[in-house]
């Protein structure tokens, strides 16, 4: 059972084990052609000969992700295939493994099952989530637009993503980042395509291939991550380092983009984008569409002076996160994700009447209750440490991961 942080008893913070061991990168030759994993009480042996592809979920510079089915059991899971010929790519994968092995006490971080080495490829097995937030918010805007057009209204994207969804997203990501920080890890690549959602309304952080380890709370590798979401202090040359508050900036941009339906900086010219981030005032939400609580959160996350930004514990005390941390967003998640299944010639279904804000007891990095069997897509997972490594999405700045 995870330990509870007694320094903040009112928050019931779950902390990682003391001094979690560093997982040493094993050579790929130590990985077998098959592996056993346990999902929802069922142990299965994964082998290239007993699985079949169902569909591709995403692709990028480091490989591609697809949905596969374990034919003997009918169980479906995601697999990412990556060519293991480059040492740099192997380093990325082993960093992913190190972070994820340590993070299994936090259900806001994607679960992993194991890996095999086959035909010069690393095949990484993981739980299935339905979409990245990049894909999710674009589906939501398209759905709202279609509904407005069918009603004879103007195309208005106001409130396409309800605030409970934004609040639950903020809470889940901050909880995951705080858990990582307790292990002296900084993510460094927060963006919509690295946050995943499922039909149960669960939101999980993924892709730790370029995460870094903090020394005296400071990271010093400046080239890691997608520049579009980098904080101003990471874009300035000759800096001594940066801390976790650079990820707070990236979270602010991510929430801004999801809420408004557009990235707030120029997207067709990287130089202009960097210049705007460094020289211009931070972006502000349009007035009249959002609560003052959400305005306050975005404004604080997007403080250009990193010393003025809140850390994770401070963010968890924000009214916006406390209001929506237990919101049940499953109806809205299903409504948006199931819209893909509706034929374009049909009238889209009406949106749910409201997104519930009633408390939902669910295990997370800041609570001690066990996960609900009805709301968890992959509970009771046993990790086989002899050959388990994982990742969840690619690190392209292009948000093309639809897993």
TrEMBL record:
The EC number on file is: 2.7.12.2
Name any one Pfam family assigned in the record. Answer: Pkinase
Please give the catalytic activity noted in the UniProt record: L-threonyl-[protein] + ATP = O-phospho-L-threonyl-[protein] + ADP + H(+); L-tyrosyl-[protein] + ATP = O-phospho-L-tyrosyl-[protein] + ADP + H(+); L-seryl-[protein] + ATP = O-phospho-L-seryl-[protein] + ADP + H(+)
Q: Annotated Gene Ontology MF terms?
A: ATP binding; MAP kinase kinase activity; protein serine/threonine kinase activity
**Keywords recorded for this protein, A-Z:** ATP-binding, Kinase, Nucleotide-binding, Serine/threonine-protein kinase, Transferase
Q: Where is the composition biased (Pro residues)?
A: 17-28
| Keyword Transit peptide belongs to the record | no
The GO biological-process annotations, alphabetized, read as: positive regulation of autophagy; positive regulation of programmed cell death; stress-activated MAPK cascade
Recorded hits in InterPro entries, A to Z, give: Kinase-like_dom_sf, Prot_kinase_dom, Protein_kinase_ATP_BS, Ser/Thr_kinase_AS
Which positions fall inside the Protein kinase domain?
51-321
Region (Disordered) spans which residues? 1-31
> What is the enzyme's main class?
transferase
The positions annotated for binding ATP are: 80
As for family, the record states: Belongs to the protein kinase superfamily. STE Ser/Thr protein kinase family. MAP kinase kinase subfamily.
What is the name attached to this protein's record?
Answer: mitogen-activated protein kinase kinase
The scientific name of the source species is: Dermatophagoides farinae (American house dust mite)
């Amino acid at each position: 059972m995870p330990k509870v942080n007694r320094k903040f008893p009112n928050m019931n913070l779950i902390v990682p084990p003391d001094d979690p061991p560093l997982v040493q990168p094993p050579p790929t030759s130590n990985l077998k052609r098959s592996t056993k994993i346990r999902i929802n009480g069922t142990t299965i042996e994964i082998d290239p000969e007993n699985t079949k592809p169902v569909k591709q979920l995403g692709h990028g510079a480091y490989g591609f992700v697809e949905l596969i089915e374990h034919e003997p059991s009918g169980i479906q899971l995601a697999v990412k295939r990556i060519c293991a010929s480059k040492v740099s790519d192997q380093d990325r994968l082993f960093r992913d493994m190190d972070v994820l092995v340590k993070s299994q006490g936090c259900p806001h971080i994607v679960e992993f099952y194991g890996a095999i080495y086959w035909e010069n490829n690393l095949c990484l097995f993981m739980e299935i989530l339905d979409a990245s937030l990049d894909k999710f918010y674009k589906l939501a805007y398209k759905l709202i637009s279609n509904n407005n057009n069918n009603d004879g209204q103007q195309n208005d994207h106001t409130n396409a993503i309800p605030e409970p969804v934004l609040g639950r997203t903020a809470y889940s990501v901050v909880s995951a980042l705080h858990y990582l920080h307790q292990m002296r890890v900084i993510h460094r690549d927060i963006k919509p395509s690295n946050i995943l959602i499922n039909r149960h309304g669960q939101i999980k952080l993924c892709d730790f291939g370029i995460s870094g380890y903090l020394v005296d709370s400071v990271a010093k590798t400046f080239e890691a991550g997608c520049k579009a979401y980098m904080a101003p202090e990471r874009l300035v040359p000759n800096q001594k380092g940066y801390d976790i508050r650079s990820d707070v900036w990236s979270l602010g941009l991510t929430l801004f983009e999801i809420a408004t339906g557009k990235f707030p900086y120029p997207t067709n010219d990287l130089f202009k984008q960097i210049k705007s981030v460094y020289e211009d005032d931070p972006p502000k939400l349009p007035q009249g569409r959002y609560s003052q609580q959400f305005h306050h959160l975005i404004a604080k996350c997007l403080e250009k002076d990193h010393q003025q930004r809140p850390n994770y514990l401070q963010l968890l005390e924000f009214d916006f996160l406390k209001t929506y941390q237990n919101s049940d967003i499953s109806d809205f998640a299903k409504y948006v994700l199931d819209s893909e299944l509706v034929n374009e010639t049909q009238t889209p279904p009406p949106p749910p009447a409201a997104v519930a804000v009633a408390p939902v007891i669910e295990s997370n990095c800041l609570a001690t209750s066990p996960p609900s069997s009805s709301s968890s897509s992959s509970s009771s997972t046993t990790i086989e440490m002899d050959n388990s490594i994982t990742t969840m999405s690619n690190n392209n700045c292009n948000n093309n991961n639809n897993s």
